[in-house]
Amino acid sequence: MCYVKLGAKSLDTSGRGIPFKFYTAYYLSFYSRRRAKTLRDLLEGIKAADKNTLFHHLFHTIRSKHLIPPKYTNDFAHWVGEEVGDEELAAALSDISGAEPATIEDIRREIVEILEPHADDRAGRSEFVFVAMEPVVVETNYVANTLGEFLDMLEVVPGESIVYHFVTRRVLDGTGRNDFSTWLEKNFGLAEVAESLSRIDPLMYNSEEALRGAILKTLRRWLL
């Protein structure tokens, strides 16, 4: 039986015997028929778009493996800033939070609240094209039974797996919490560790590896 030191107490790293099974997801993207020429069109498109389309435009930056951090955190902010030229509105859209417990519908409401007072006939230099998306979930061979195995696997699982468990399941499927925090609290009773992890906002990271690094840094601070 293995233990780690957590504050003033020792913790059984095998927990309650609930394994963590890693999955990964790939996202098939395709152009939809919906276009936006003006800010008003963009607002109406955001109101009408399905949740997968919104998820693509908000979170695909994390999956794009950027070498240089983008100026804006999502496609809506980028279009408003670069094509319409309203940098103040773009900055407000770029500040949208993707932190827990936000679901895709929570984020939609926040975008609409920000955009609606400014949704006029100002046009972009080019149209905004709404891109539809369909996630394809794939099982991996990674299964963690202990905290040590979990930390080791977080370093080597595909970046898409990190995004799936930390972002996709919560935001798109509406689970309310990332899978890592749920497992840490349910299996080990690590409520404080889970809460610390839950405070990470994935929209603040421009790549899978940056998000992975933030997760590992948080866990190591508590567990090692």
Structure, described:
This protein is of the alpha+beta class. It has one domain. It has ten helices and four strands; from the N terminus they run βββαααααβααααα. The strands form two sheets. The protein has a two-stranded antiparallel ribbon with strand order 1-2. A two-stranded antiparallel sheet has the order 3-4. Strand 1 and strand 2 form a beta hairpin. Helix 8 packs antiparallel against helix 9. The chain is elongated and about 60 Å long. The two termini are 17 Å apart.
Features:
224 residues, alpha+beta, 10 helices, 4 strands, 49% helix
Structural class: alpha+beta
User: Number of DSSP helices?
Assistant: 10
Give the domain tally: 1
The biggest sheet, with number of strands, parallel, antiparallel or mixed sense and barrel status, is: 2 strands, antiparallel
Strand content: 15-25%
So what's the overall shape?
Answer: elongated
- Enumerate the spans where pLDDT stays under 50 for 5 or more consecutive residues: none
Tell me how many strands there are: 4
Overall mean pLDDT: 91
What share of the residues lie within helices?
A: 40-55%
Instruction: Round the Cα radius of gyration to an integer and report it.
Output: 19 Å
Distance between the termini: 17 Å
Order of helices and strands: EEEHHHHHEHHHHH
| Strand order in space, largest sheet | 1-2
Pfam families: DUF5752
InterPro entries: DUF5752
